[in-house]
Amino acid sequence: MADVASVNVSSQLSGIESSLSILSENTRQLGERMNDVDRKMNNTLAQLEALKKDFLRMMDEQRKEAEFQRATTELVRVRQELEQKFGNYKVVRDTMLGVLQATDAKLVRQTTISKVSEELMLSTPKYWLAPCLIAVAAWIGNDRALADRAISEAMRRDTKRTALCMALVCRRNGREDTCFEWLSLYFSKLDARNFSDLEFSFVDAYVNGVFGEDRKHRCDDYIANWINEIRDTTEDFEKKQVEQWDEMLRLYVQPMDGHYPALKKNVKEFGRIDDYLGRICASGSVETAFDNLAKAPVDQTQLVRGIDERLVQLVSDYAQEEKPLRDQEEELTAIKAYRGDVFTAQKVVEGARRLKKAQKMDMVAKMTDVISGGKGRAISERKTAISFLKNYINDGYDRFLDEKSEAFPTQISIGIDGWTGNTVDGSNETQLLDDYEKYMDGLRQQKVDAVNMKPGLPWFIGAGVLGVFGLFMIPHGVILVLLMLLGAGAAGGYGYLQNKKAIQTVESINNEYKELIAKGKGEILITEKEWLDVRSKVSEFRSKERKKLVA
Q1: Eight-class DSSP state of 128
Q2: Contact (CB, 8 A) for 165 and 129
């Protein structure tokens, strides 16, 4: 029975093992299937992500394409509306340019010009340029009454543009007195707090005689009043102007440490020396730059050509009432150019508008910007701006040169190897050298005193003791005596070497300080030499009569 029971148990265990093996295999297969499912899910997620990107890209492309198509369609509509509402404005502009060219060449009859001008006047009841065209035609035909009526109407529509247009037309035709009347009226309409490059170009042309000689000084007062207006409405105007020019002139200053390395290294007042000397040395470069600008010739031909181009620009500019549609046209053109990328197009358009707006500033700031603009500005413009701001520039130059003068030291403190000494003009050179040597000798002596000059003494005593013991050991054997004597000899020899080493250390310290003293004295002499050179330059500069930076 026991055997039967054992067989049953064994059979049951074998079955269990078989079941466990099957279960393990099933588990393994299930794990592989789950891993396969994970891989498939990851692949599916990756494909979905790629599909999402493709979809978003497609949507973005469709959106851009839609915006491109919309801009293209809208651009046609806007231009049609411009043509419908302001087509005649363009005809007026083109005709005015044609009339100006025709009067130069004298190729068109006056009756033809008058007829065309009158027809355009009827078709553009609000445009300021149309009555200007009538006035020019009447002026050509010597019809003073018609010219006066046309100019009155043009002035009613746009005084500022009409005045400038007539001034430029009169200049082209040599009517100087009339030209200055119109130019003074134009100047009277300018805002000193909101000045553009275009407006400054006319001031520049006036100052440089492009319009002729203003014998009655019709325009001078306006320019003076602009500066006064800015000054009266700006807190601490003079102070700020002087500080601004002082700051601008500092750009010419170069550090002096490369020219005076010993002063920089050894003198604690070098910062104050550098501040003042840098400005003195920069004064030559500053004066040369302004002298060269004052002597630079003005290209009168280029100025005249530029003013004629300004007249063409004025005549060609769009009317104010066109602006809303012109802005739309600009935006739609940009969207089309960037293939429907509205964000980029708007960014470009807004950036251009901000830049144009930023170019307007108050009259004084505009002149300062012109002067500091360097090669980006015409010689004539820089000279014009300097002529108006010369008082502030000269005051700023005085501040630039004098600001650090009081801080310039009358004597210097030389510091080398922990020693310090003062000198005014180097006359106490011998005393300084002696003091430095005495100070260094003190340091040398401290190091020498710290050296133990008898380091071998304990070893000599030990050698003597061993020698005495050796004598007492004679009765006990020769070998013991020899050992004692050898020990005594070794101790004495080591003691001798220690004493010799101490003597060498003292000799090394003396040699080291001898070199340091020689080098330090050399540094003192070089520092004094550089200081005397600085004093000489400062004295020479202060003794000279200071000239005005701008005459």
Answers
A1: T
A2: yes
Q: The tokens of 423 are what?
A: 């000198």
Read off the tokens for 234: 């700006």
CB of 360 within 8 A of CB of 196?
yes
Nearest to 260 by CA among 545, 535, 508, 542: 535
Diameter of the chain measured on Cα atoms = 158
Could you report the per-residue pLDDT of 264-301, keeping only the tens digit for each?
Answer: 999 999 999 999 999 999 999 999 989 998 898 988 89
Vertex 110, ends 109 and 111: CA angle to 5°?
90
Answer whether 233's CB lies under 8 Å from 192's CB. no
429: CB partners within 8 A, 6+ apart:
423, 524, 525, 528
Among the listed residues 185, 179, 170, 171, the one whose alpha carbon sits nearest the alpha carbon of residue 221: 185
Strands (E) located in 20-172 = none
Listed residue (484, 461, 457) closest to 473, CA to CA: 484
* Residue whose pair of structure tokens reads 């700020």 in the numeric block: 240
SS3 call for 423? strand
CA distance 245 to 243: 6
Q: Are 401 and 230 in contact (CB under 8 A)?
A: no
**Tokens standing for residue 178:** 């009339």
Digit-coded pLDDT (tens) for 443-480: 888 877 766 555 545 655 655 555 555 555 555 555 65
Which tokens in the block code for residue 489?
């000899």
Cβ atoms of residues 169 and 143 within 8 Å: no
For residue 307, which phi and psi values (nearest 5 degrees)? -65, -40
CB atoms within 10 A of CB 94: 13
Burial code (b: 16+ CB inside 10 Å, e: under 16) for 385-406 equals bbebbeebbbbbbbbbbeebee
Q: Which residues pair with 195 in a beta bridge?
A: 361
Strands 419-423 and 412-416: antiparallel
Nearest-Å Rg of the Cα atoms of the chain is: 48
**Residues 325-344 pLDDT 10s:** 999 999 999 998 988 888 89
Contact present, 120 and 91 (Cβ < 8 Å)? yes
